[in-house]
Amino acid sequence: AxxxxxxxxxxxxxxxxPVLLRCNYSSSYSPSLFWYVQHPNKGLQLLLKYTSAAxxxxxINGFEAEFKKSETSFHLxxxxxxxxxxxxxxxxxxxxxxxxxxxxxxxxxxxxx
Amino acid sequence: xxxxSQHPSWxxxxxxxxxxxxxxxxxxxxxxxxxxxQFPKQSLMLMATSNEGSKATYEQGVEKDKFLINHASxxxxxxxxTSAHPEDSSFYICSAVRPSNYYNEQFFGPGTRLTVL
Lengths: 113, 117
What we know:
The structure holds two protein chains of two kinds.
Chain A: E1 3-6, E2 10-14, E3 19-21, E4 23-26, E5 32-38, E6 44-50, E7 56-58, E8 64-68, E9 73-78, E10 87-94, E11 101-103, E12 107-112
Chain B: E1 4-7, E2 10-13, E3 19-25, E4 32-38, E5 44-51, E6 57-58, E7 67-73, E8 76-81, E9 90-98, E10 105-108, E11 112-116
Parallel strand pairs in B: 2-11
Antiparallel strand pairs in B: 1-3, 3-8, 4-5, 4-9, 5-6, 7-8, 9-10, 9-11
């Protein structure tokens, strides 16, 4: 079975400092992994995805994530936080066929000016 | 990327009435669509999996007679909240799966906010 654990329910950083949002996954197969962002009262936007190609994945808005099989992790990072990054972030794993998608509980990112 | 729309974006209704929410994949065909419910400051909760041409598969605890799902075409799925009550007030989000040879990617609609008075 597939599952994801987002280790931090809330992260707070100062503007201009690095962002790290942690995600660990459990999967019986080689997984596909995604990070989505949701701004208040908005739908979900795909930041990036890993689908068994390069382990370092670059996404939109300066975000990137590294797939580490040995650590079963897919942490999301950004070198320098911007005020507009304040939002809810979800890590998602899909099953082998891509027919089911499992959400983490979300991490709320606050950016302090 | 692919586009998924939802209509309406926000609906307010009286208790006891039924509300229909539409989810459309605008530029691809989706054999599978998902319906989620999201409470404030919480993650998405999968309600049901909608497959074109067949009955929806509901998650445990979701009343299928309360939340009617119809996936009549490859680009449209509808969720009808029947006899809505204030506790049904929530943010409902659909997603459509675009299949490919390598992996199936999920595209989300912008969500529908339902307020039941």
